[in-house]
Amino acid sequence: MIFIDGSNFYFKMKSLEIKNLSKFKYRELCEYIAGERLIATAGYYVGVVRAKFSDEKGQKMRLAQRKLFNHLHNQQVVVHNGYLMKNDGVYHEKGVDVKIATDLLVGAYENLYDDAIVISSDTDLLPAMQKVKELGKNVEYVGFGHQPALALQTAATRSRLLLIEELEKFVSRE
After folding, report:
1. Which of 150, 174, 128, 169 minimizes the C-alpha distance to 33?
2. Is residue 17 part of a domain?
3. Beta bridge partners of 118
4. Domain range for residue 161?
5. Are 150 and 170 contacting, i.e. CB atoms less than 8 angstroms apart?
6. Number of helices (H) and strands (E), helices first, in the chain?
7. Cα distance between residue 115 and residue 84, in whole Å
8. Per the domain annotation, does 173 fall within a domain?
9. For position 131, which CATH number holds?
10. CB count in 10 Å sphere of residue 76
11. Residue 174 located in a structural domain
12. H or E segment at 139?
């Protein structure tokens, strides 16, 4: 099973100046990372934009996110919704890390996977990753070469850092 922390992925890609993620080849990236392993499911975890009709910026974000969700669906990547809350004009994601951690644990307890591949640099996932390993499952941390999370590398059964050259292969030129 592959667990993609959508917001974390977005900001790491943005820091690499890789744009237009609504056309990124997410499924191909998952297959590349999985290698010869069969992918039971690939999940993209993200806070969903909810905006008032009068909120122009929020409506723009909502439309862009809908395009992304359709794009992910077409690539057989399951979207798992968290929440985006607006506080003092700034959006904050809520519930996404907990959803990833819960799905990691449920998948391990219910024997839904042998290997969990976590594409995130969020150390809030450490306790869940450690428990998954205690349950006899492998946890692979996939991070970004320019900003690795040492704690996740240490906690994982296996780790891999993606380089910009690898990621650019999955940027659609359309």
Report:
1. 169
2. yes
3. 3, 141
4. 2-168
5. no
6. 7, 7
7. 29
8. no
9. 3.40.50.1010
10. 12
11. no
12. strand 138-144
